[in-house]
Specification:
homotetramer, identical protein binding (chains A, B, C, D), globular, 49% helix, 13% strand, SDR_fam (chains A, B, C, D), 2,4-dienoyl-CoA reductase (NADPH) activity (chains A, B, C, D), Rossmann fold, NADPH binding (chains A, B, C, D), 7-stranded parallel sheet, 277 residues, alpha/beta
Chain lengths: 277, 277, 277, 277
């Protein structure tokens, strides 16, 4: 896969425990299927090798907490041998976003790939949600994403290029991401920019489910509804992101990739239940 | 990209002028972007080489017209060095479909990848459409696709594997393809099968538009609505199909990939029009 | 509500046990809420009276089985005092459809309202579905609906009017109904015709569930996913149909009314499960 | 139509020029079709009379500008003979929202119907949008709607009733409204509450288009895409809202009514263009 990227800018308040850029570079050697042993032996060596070289020459990552950022930057560097710049940025603050984008361009040039992974989760009965909790989420997830996209977008219009990927795991953000991808693809496609959204479905990450779902009931129900019969992995998301950012996907613009089968109709699932019995 | 396929079965009444399997294997050397020269030089050689080797060892193609099938089979063989079997099959006839699948398995074993590309186009004011014209389309597009998928599916349940791609260009078939992908992913996912749909958007093929749209007005309007500002190419579809069939997409099941930005909301487009003025 | 209809044409192979036209006229006096007693007392008398008078002056019904048709016709007549014509018609036969439409116009004039309720159900693991079973369903549901709509549509183009409602309960037909409603609204809207689809969700009818779901497990699961916490009633569908056919909805064209909350996102439902615990 | 409402609470920053509650009560006597004369004569008198009596006994309206609110309150009172309370409220301020809801319940009791019509429009190329402009919109449209819905919802959980209608005209708000309707219907349906969304499509209002579209080009293009061949009217929206709030729609919960045919597929429209030629 050809990423062709010179500069890669990743944004995410939860980089280390979520979809961290380091995974993005190492997917070739990681397990990417349930049946690892069988596949490894069949894996075509030239391709496997090529994957290691598909390397972004410079990577800039931004997030709110400096210590987390630094640890992530070192991890990526040690795994890829690439320089990684870390910039502290609270995406809720437009001025801080503007400074971050200036610094990004100063240290690394205009980015080829921009990954939006800003997230704020809440799984709570709505009636217990306070106005402040709601506002914090929309500030991070909606306003933050908009501020970064608008600021970098304005710079990339001049550069006439740029590829944006937005990961959206929760409902409200997904809706906004869809809107942004479609609107901006329609508006800024003429400048050579592409905007795509990945709706990941439930991914296996350390800690996430144990905290939100201690008994595992929720996880079991989710798995029951996933055609592949298992949670996804971070590497699988990275694979899709790599494909969408590559030149192979140069015509895919304004698309929403629903990785997970989300039973759009009550049909599929019901048929499945019946098929079981 | 790892196709990992031992046997590849492609079905389509319009193989030579549509998405022919030969393209499927040769995308690595073909133009895959608007800006060819620039990209070729940057193209990473090991990957380019790998692409040539990602080869299905056996290919079986089926369609209604034997002469067209034979010409296509020879073309694929000469380009890839692979054996290609051609089986005559009218997908509207369940018995013929059953025989085709038997022969397929006899000559090449259970297929790893099944491509459904059966198509029947009509662009006609509905009031001029006869019951017979309507019936021919549903017989090919709906019943044909269902017969092939059910018959191969039943065989692959025993083999516990299989990847189906369905190309759906027109409205009615797309709806059915979505239904099938979601239902079958939910039902047969447990057997290790995957079902994905590609909704291509307008693709540049020889003849297609000159026949349906002699003045080019329709094409101009379409291009106006595509964020990338141009029609897609067959290679771009092949890229996406290759990705979806590969192990990199092993968790993507029941998905509909809308390659083309189809203005889900009247918004995107309108904003674009206003942005122009 | 003003139906304003002079002639009403209803088509459905399962009129008596499904959404029969007789229900269509009597919704005003039927239970239309879970909390009947409370509502009846509050019910505004002039409106209640008006409902009884909103009467189609002539009703033509068509279906395959003559004995069932006759019984239904008598039932409607006795309840409404209106004339009801019954015409035997197998919608799979284009010639029979043409004759039915001719007779309809001869006995009653051009219809103001056309209800498509042709249905063929299958709840079966796909792997046990035979090509013939599949073909019977598409013949009734797709081809039948298309033949009737095309034939009446051609006649109504001359009359410059007409309102079509299509009930679509199962997945494949729904997809087709959506396609038809949108395409035909776009094409024939200029002739003053309207095309709307109702996707009912699970409705309580005698026999339906006892046959398909003897243990009631499926019904319980469905109810769990319906925000109102209960199955719908035939009268509730009739209410919506009456609204969509009335002049109050004169601008609603090409719409799909999803009566039932079908959990478009895995969110809603999951949140609900969590809210329970 | 039975609104059955004792208290009606309408919220909207642009009540007078947008969908004002006064229209909500008077739709029965207003033009509700393109062909007025013909219809009036056919209009069934008892129903017409009933419509005038379907009256909310108390109406509370809230918005940011007190002078506009007062003028609207007087207009509604003079047309309906009902008491109208006006409460000044900036929906961006959670404390002000809490006070408004307290006052609403104090003066009129728990509302039966809640109309969310808060809006903030922008039609601007995205590259010219400032962070502040973006934030103002999300503050009004997202946070404001959320604050009001959460606050009233918490009160209505105790009252075990309530019907919410959300009008969403622009893209981002529509996405959020969909999310809210589906999530809250799933969560709060058990308390007897219903949440539905109306996506109106282009409606003819004084001033709106003359300001945003002085040359009328945009309006012409929109009309071209509407099956009925004309813009909608405020009364038509009121009709749909009245239906959804009535007991006739007691099972419709979590639904999104797309009044306007928004060409989900590029099909409908294209077919139409071809049909023209």
């Amino acid at each position: 896969m050809t990423l062709q990227a010179r500069v890669f800018f990743a944004l995410g308040s939860r980089l280390p425990c979520g979809l961290a850029p380091r995974r993005f570079f190492s997917y070739g050697t990681k397990i990417y299927s349930t049946n690892t042993e069988a596949l490894q032996s069949k894996f075509f060596p030239p391709l496997q090798k090529a994957m290691h070289h598909l390397i972004v020459t410079q990577c800039v990552i931004a997030s709110r907490k400096m210590d987390v950022l630094k640890a992530t930057a070192e991890q990526i560097s040690s795994q890829t041998g690439n320089k990684v710049h870390a910039i502290q940025c609270d995406v809720r603050d437009p001025d801080m976003v503007q400074n971050t984008v200036s610094e990004l361009i100063k240290v690394a040039g205009h980015p080829n790939i921009v990954i939006n992974n800003a997230a704020g989760n809440f799984i709570s009965p709505t009636e217990r949600l306070s106005p402040n909790a709601w506002k914090t989420i929309t500030d991070i997830v909606l306003n933050g994403t908009a501020f970064v996209t608008l600021e970098i977008g304005k710079q990339l219009i001049k550069a006439q290029k740029g590829m944006f990927i937005c990961f959206s795991r929760i409902y409200l953000t997904l809706m906004c991401a869809r809107f942004c991808a479609k609107s901006l693809a329609a508006e800024w496609g003429k400048y050579g920019m592409r905007f795509n959204v990945i709706q990941p479905g439930p991914i296996k990450t350390k800690g996430a489910f144990s905290r939100l779902d201690p008994t595992g009931t929720f996880e079991k129900e989710m798995i029951d509804r996933i055609p592949c019969g298992r949670l996804g992995t971070i590497e699988e998301l990275a694979n899709l992101a790599a494909f969408l950012c590559s030149d192979y996907a140069s015509w895919i613009n304004g698309a929403v990739s629903i990785v997970y089968f989300s039973s759009l109709f009550f049909s599929g699932e019901d048929v499945r239940n019946i098929a079981k019995s």
